[in-house]
């Protein structure tokens, strides 16, 4: 008989492969906005304000918001639909401005938020893009980069499209602990 962790792993793997939301994302989002003392309509309002602020600061371009309504938040919370990446970003950024959230939010909770939302944080995406860019285009890499290719991609042979186990090598290198 499989252990309970094995059953959970298969369950989440099936949901992920089907493109279904992980229910704990919605539960975590609800938990966070409740700690902030908000309801869904408040989260919508604060996320919209954050969107306008980011536009005014010219950190983002207009047009990616989509339908940010309380009903969309409800669908994300109940697990009926994935929250779009833009919404997940705005929700978390708005929540981070709340004093109650500032007191309790840890990097692990934030990482779990992104992971359960089936995405990576903007910082992780940027780091991964930099590593891959340095791997694929070493001639463009500056000497004073913070991308340490010896730690990130350990291999005895160059990884290329012609290498039959290139994907395996990259996956294993990314899973190894970084020092």
TL;DR of this structure?
The chain has 179 residues and is an all-alpha fold. It has ten helices and no strands.
Roughly how much helix do the residues carry, as a percent range?
55-70%
Could you spell the SSE succession in H and E letters? Answer: HHHHHHHHHH
User: Structurally, how many domains make up the residues?
Assistant: 2
Uncertain segments: 150-171
Q: Approximately what portion of the residues adopt beta-strand conformation?
A: under 5%
Distance between the termini: 38 Å
Number of DSSP helical runs: 10
Describe this entry's structure for a reader.
The chain has two domains: 116 residues, no CATH class; 53 residues, no CATH class. It is 61% helix and 0% strand. The chain has ten helices and no strands. Helix 2 crosses helix 7. It is globular, with a radius of gyration of 20 Å. About 12% of the residues have low confidence.
Produce the secondary structure layout.
Blueprint: H1 4-17, H2 23-35, H3 40-56, H4 70-78, H5 85-96, H6 99-104, H7 107-116, H8 122-136, H9 149-152, H10 166-175
Helix pairs in contact: 2-7, 3-5
Short descriptors:
179 residues, mainly alpha, 10 helices, 61% helix, 0% strand
């Amino acid at each position: 008989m499989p252990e309970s962790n094995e059953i959970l792993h298969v369950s989440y793997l099936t949901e992920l492969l089907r493109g279904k939301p992980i229910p704990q994302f919605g539960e975590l989002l609800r938990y966070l906005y409740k700690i902030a003392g908000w309801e869904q309509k408040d989260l919508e309002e604060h996320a919209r304000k954050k969107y306008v602020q980011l536009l005014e600061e010219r950190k983002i371009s207009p047009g990616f918001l989509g339908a940010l309504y309380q009903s969309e938040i409800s669908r994300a919370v109940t697990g009926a639909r994935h929250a779009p990446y833009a919404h997940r970003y705005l929700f978390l950024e708005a929540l981070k401005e709340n004093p109650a959230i500032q007191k309790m939010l840890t990097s692990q909770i934030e990482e779990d938020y992104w992971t359960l939302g089936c995405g990576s944080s903007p910082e992780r995406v940027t780091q991964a893009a930099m590593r891959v860019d340095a791997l694929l285009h070493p001639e463009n890499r500056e000497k004073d980069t913070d991308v340490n290719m010896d730690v990130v991609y350990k291999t005895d042979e160059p990884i290329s499209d012609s290498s039959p186990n290139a994907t395996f090598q990259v996956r294993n290198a990314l899973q190894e602990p970084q020092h």
